[in-house]
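The material for today's practical consists of a large collection of protein records. Backbone structure tokens are a discrete shorthand for how the chain folds in space. An example says more than a description, so a record of this kind follows:
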Amino acid sequence: MAARSGVGRAALLVAVLTAVSTVLGLVRDAVLAAVYGAGPQLDAWFVALGLSSILLGVLGTSLTRAVTPVVAREVDAEGDECRGHPGWWTATVVGTVGLGVVGVVLGLAAAPISVVLAPGLARTDDGTLVLLVRVVLLATVLIAATDLLAGLAHGHGVFRWVALQGIPFNLVMIAAAGLLGPRYGVAALAWGFVVGSLLRMLLQLWPAWRHRWRLATRVDLRSPGWREIAAMVPALMLGQAVVNVSTIVDRAVASTVQEGAVSAIFLGWRLTNLPETLVVAALMAPLYPAMGAAAGRPRELRALLHRGTGVTLTILVPVVAALAVVPDRVVALAFGRGSFDEEAVALTATAVVWFLPALLAVGWRHVVVSASYAVGDTRGPVAIGVVAMVVNVVGDLTLAPVLGVRGIVLATSVSMLLAAVLTSWYVADRHRLLDVARARGQVVRALVTGLAAGLAAAAAAEVLAGSPDLLVVPVVGLAALGGQQAVLHLARFPERRVAGEVAALLMRRR
């Protein structure tokens, strides 16, 4: 069994490696925007990518979320040698074969499906959208296998290889778009997606071979591990389906609003969600299996939950403040070149602003939901997800005709805030894992420090009003961080220690 490092050090390692992958992901999106612009080609790509994400989310992600705590508990009970994980073996066979079959069926029905996914695009599609859907579906089995291997690695306390997987994938996608895109169009992205997905999977096989984890293509439906996984999967699948219904409706409605709306919403969320990817996802990589291992120790699990929510808010608050002050500058710096014109920048910046409440809600809920999953409760979060989905769909249909992109994004943010509040109440009331008073204090302190961060960011932006984006964006970000940290230390809030803990981890040697 791999020796487990502390959650803090593991989270730092994952954050550093994920940062490299995320920067490359941002470069990838910038190249896509420059080559294709916010137009029908890029809209079609994001719609096709959305179908793949839906399929993977409903089955692949659900299995991965279910296997990680099961494997973590099995590893906790092992000695120095991996004895194998029959539940994981079974989940891998069921997941990859099931996705393969469903992918073939969806590929054959790609034409009518594209009409449902993007009615606005389908009316003028020349066959590109159907081709993209079929090619991207080829990669779903590879991605599912990659994610399940990642779940196995996390269960064993090995995180670095999972955090590295985005690097080869993004390099392939950058090459496909930058070198082949101008000649072969958006189809180059789809084939690059398949090749990059294959490289990601091959990278995840290395730690399994190195640590001699026992891999097998066996199906053991009677194993305790599989029975536990199978009990969790239906609710997780429903939860993922709920999330993806919201995504489908968002993009379908956006395709009818105006040309480039799908791209603006997708890129706006990608940019807004970067901090969540860097911080919360990196934190949860080691925190989730640690929660699974602590499922029978409520005090320890509660401490892990509040540590996660505290770090999440402390890191995200100054980011939200900076993005709120200079969203157009950030979008222009990230994507404003080539075919991505001023109109596309303005539309994407609008999406960024209205997505900001969702960023905080998603980060908080990610931690809280993981605690619920760790104790085997998936039904509560899923039921809350259904409520949030209904709010989002109704909001899309009623607000989009009036507010356009703003209405679609506002509906998403409101639904995510509602889901975060209801999930927190549920975990506190049902499992006593969330201390309401402590959580309320964290939120109030985040609001106070967020106000200070916003004022500092606005002052910096005013001083640098005529300066280039490359100077304004980092200075405004630093001003927001400085304003937050000043209040944290002057008021002696407990979150003031977060920066010091991270710095100590950076200085600590293994």
Observations:
- DSSP finds 21 helices and no strands in the chain.
- The radius of gyration is 22 Å.
